[in-house]
Amino acid sequence: MEYLNPQYILFAGILLLILVDFLRHSLKSNKKAILHYLTAVFLGLALVFDVIYGNMNINLFSEVQYSQFVTGFMLFLSFFIYLFIISDKNEHSVAIDISYLSAVLGSTLVVLSSNLISMFISIEILSISTYALVYMYKSGNALEGAVKYLSTGVISMVILIFGISLIYAGAGTLSFSSLHVISYLPFIAGVAIVIAGLGFKSTLVPFHMWAPDTYEASKSSVTAFISSVSKAAGLIAMIRIFFFALPVSSLFVTALFLSIALITIFLSSFLASVQDRIKRILAYSSISQAGFAFISIAVLTTRGINAAVFYIFAFAVADAIVFLAYDMFENKKIIYKKESDSMTQVSRIGAAAFFIGILSLAGFPPTIGFFGKLLIFYALFSSGYFALVILTFFALLVSTFYYFNILSEMHIIDKIIKSKKQVPIKKEQRIKEVILIILTLFLFIGVIFA
């Protein structure tokens, strides 16, 4: 049953979609619904086969300890995000279906990469597909967002391949299992440059410049995928290279990682606190969450990596919820903080899911975000970084401030309890609400993985 691995399922789905679309054009049929259903089926099958059969095992890719869980998590989120996307009445083109499957395929391959070249290829499959997703919805300033994303992506690609070449110069190999003989000077330069290359994908400061504009310009359901699955792939790539592959934990690497993480957390929190547009606040919040995950990676201990993997799972689910929920409100022109009190008029369930997702991002118990941050504090404390615990806790208080600015305007409890107005609910909105309920439940059920 080795050929039933999720990556093969996704690749077969891409080929079948191309074939079915060709036949559809040959028969001069305008019905695209079957293509959307096929995409959802292949995403679902990939998730099922990941749970049952596990991972690929060929030359460029190999199984790692956490790969089946992380792959399943990415497929799970991707499946529900896609169901949310296709619940809209307006049918999108098959190119979006193919791009979406390709992006999911690239994100899962990142987890399994066994050398720097296969990881680079996987990241580029993911990146190119997400460029297309941002543009092809043609919502608002989609072209501007896609161009910014593409231009910074090309720069990061060049930086990443240059860093890989320097690591090869220092180690004489690209295989993760063979990176044990290192010439120190080329290695230091290579590590620094690879961090910069992956920093673009993970939206770490100062490589985050594209994210706020691209997030704001994209359709919010697409932003949900980029801020959760795509960002998780970038952070997992960091873990794969700097913990499982590279054999040293030098003071230089640790200091560099911690500096980037702290700057990411504090700068993004400050920028979020001065924003007035809801989606822009959520964009900087997403950058801050990446910083929290990265500071746990920075300690380069098993406890820190476990905390980071769990926190990536935690913030990705919460990010997906808030952006998907906001997609419902954005369509009704709820753009600024002061307008957030109108969310319950659009969807009470959507507003409640948005509210709970924000609470998880802020780290309020008993959500998964609270336990994720608790594990990060424990990893830092057990490694002797007492000052970092205090600094990150202070940053958490700052982030609570701008989250509260949104939540305080919602008056959600009063609105839901006291409102007697019956709002007619369309079928597609009901589907979206069911998806949000399922994802919101995982903010509490997911605590068992802690």
What report would you give on this structure?
With 450 residues, the chain is an all-alpha fold. It has a domain at 274-288 and 307-450. It has helices spanning 6-26, 33-53, 67-86, 94-112, 116-136, 142-171, 184-202, 210-217, 220-245, 251-273, 278-298, 302-330, 343-346, 348-362, 368-382, 386-410, 412-418, 427-445. Mean pLDDT is 79; it is low at 56-61.
Give the SSE layout.
Elements: H1 6-26, H2 33-53, H3 67-86, H4 94-112, H5 116-136, H6 142-171, H7 184-202, H8 210-217, H9 220-245, H10 251-273, H11 278-298, H12 302-330, H13 343-346, H14 348-362, H15 368-382, H16 386-410, H17 412-418, H18 427-445
Helix pairs in contact: 1-2, 1-4, 2-3, 2-4, 3-4, 3-9, 3-12, 3-18, 4-5, 4-9, 5-6, 5-9, 6-7, 6-8, 7-9, 8-11, 9-11, 9-12, 10-11, 10-16, 11-12, 11-15, 11-16, 12-14, 12-15, 12-18, 14-16, 14-18
Output the helix-strand order.
HHHHHHHHHHHHHHHHHH
Please state the average pLDDT score: 79
What general outline do the C-alpha atoms trace? globular
The counted number of beta strands is 0
Uncertain ranges: 56-61
How many angstroms separate the termini?
31 Å
Rounded to an integer, what's the Rg over CA atoms?
21 Å
The portion of residues forming beta strands comes to under 5%
| Derived structural class | mainly alpha
Helix content: over 70%
